[in-house]
């Protein structure tokens, strides 16, 4: 989330930290199975986001080559869960070969998404890439760089 106005920072809170926690940057972490509401506040306004956690089991990210990522992007995704929406970000400029950093994160959970998102942000912050996309495929998340 981002804001303009008097306050340039959002605050986040979880109604049930036994289900999911949220840090000062808005990064949600699954804790236990169930449902909770994440509150985002800024400039006297509030937005609520419902978060569902199912089968909260630790998963470790797995890597795949670019061809695997492209195959996974073409899978039909029947999952209509709004928490699995794509996340795209780009800056000006391009890297010489950003696709070498493409990575696949298996698991259809908040933890998997957060791992994928954190990886993409770390690559952006390192200056190795200048744009990325985090996309669900029903079984995990593809991180592709451009």
Would you write up a description of this structure?
With 146 residues, the protein is an alpha+beta fold. It folds into two domains: 43 residues, no CATH class; 80 residues, no CATH class. It contains two helices and nine strands. It has a four-stranded antiparallel beta sheet, with helices on both faces. A three-stranded antiparallel beta sheet has the order 1-4-5, with no helix packed on it. Strand 8 and strand 9 form a beta hairpin. It is flat. The two termini are 23 Å apart. About 16% of the residues have low confidence.
Largest sheet, described in full?
4 strands, antiparallel
Q: How many beta strands in the DSSP annotation?
A: 9
Helix content: 10-25%
Strand residue percentage: 25-35%
What structural category characterises the helix and strand content?
Answer: alpha+beta
Q: How much is the average pLDDT?
A: 74
- The string of secondary-structure elements, in order, is EEEEEHEEHEE
**How are strands sequenced across the largest beta sheet?**
6-8-9-7
**How many structural domains?**
2
Overall shape: it is flat
User: How far is the first residue's CA from the last residue's CA?
Assistant: 23 Å
- Low confidence ranges: 62-85
Helices and strands in order:
Layout: E1 11-14, E2 20-22, E3 28-30, E4 34-42, E5 45-53, H1 66-73, E6 87-90, E7 103-106, H2 110-126, E8 131-136, E9 140-145
Antiparallel strand pairs: 1-4, 2-3, 4-5, 6-8, 7-9, 8-9
Summarize the model shown.
The chain has two helices and nine strands; from the N terminus they run βββββαββαββ. It is α+β, with helices and mostly antiparallel strands. It folds into two domains: 11-53, no CATH class; 66-145, no CATH class.
């Amino acid at each position: 989330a981002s804001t303009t106005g008097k306050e340039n920072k959002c605050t986040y809170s979880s109604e049930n930290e036994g289900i999911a926690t949220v840090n000062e940057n808005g990064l949600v972490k699954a804790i236990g199975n169930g449902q909770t509401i994440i509150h985002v506040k800024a400039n006297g306004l509030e937005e609520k986001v419902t978060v569902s956690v199912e089968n909260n089991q630790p998963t470790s990210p797995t890597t795949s080559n670019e061809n695997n990522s492209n195959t996974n992007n073409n899978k039909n995704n029947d999952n209509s869960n709004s928490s699995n929406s794509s996340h795209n970000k780009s800056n000006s400029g391009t890297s010489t070969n950003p696709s070498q950093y493409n990575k696949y994160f298996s698991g259809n959970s908040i933890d998997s998404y957060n791992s994928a998102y954190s990886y993409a942000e770390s690559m952006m912050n390192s200056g190795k890439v200048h744009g990325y996309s985090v996309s669900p495929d029903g079984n995990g998340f593809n991180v592709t760089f451009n």
